[in-house]
Amino acid sequence: QQEVTNDLEKQKRLLGLEQNPDYRKEHDSPAALLALWKKISTHRTSVVFRRPVNPKEAPGYADRIIFPMDLSLIRKMIVARIIKSYADFHKSIALICHNCVKYNGR
Question: What's the predicted TM-score (pTM) here?
């Protein structure tokens, strides 16, 4: 019962992000976004998402995935000021997840 309550609270907080002004605020400097990127990209489970998918290792990937995304590209987009907010960052991470499920299945 406690676990279900915790999951519901997490979902409510995620849905509340859209109303949080800090979530959409464009940062003057890429420093905060790069710090978040570093925390995610150094996590042990991020290894397979750090570089673009190798077509030799994933046959048919380019045919099925229209917008490939990886952590190295996200970093470049932060530095180039294409990603300027947590919302932009979140969308890019979500695209990585979407592509992974689309190619590999659940």
Answer: 0.85
